[in-house]
Amino acid sequence: MYNLVLLAARPSDWTHERFIDWWRGDHAELTRTLPGLRSWRHTEIDTALEPRSEGWDGVSVLGFDTAEDLRKALDSPEWAAAVAQVGDMKGRRIAVMGGEKDMLAG
């Protein structure tokens, strides 16, 4: 599996609840149509382990079969629509990509 991992924070004028509702609602409706998307998990962050980890609202992990499949999704009209919906909402994100390895498997 090749993943796009997003760490997201709401705009400063939104509540955590408003952000999660939008992220798992309207925004998810666009994201779930990405071509080649094989898995998708959301984690709503409710507690930071330590002060330096505070300020984030959620983690999203979108899984694709290959890096090429992810690149095709990022070049798609569906991705462009999801990015356009975000617009200039002024939230923060960290977006990284890489191969997944199951560390508990044999």
TrEMBL record:
InterPro entries: Dimeric_a/b-barrel, EthD_dom. Residues 13-84 form the EthD domain. This is EthD family reductase. It comes from Streptomyces phaeochromogenes.
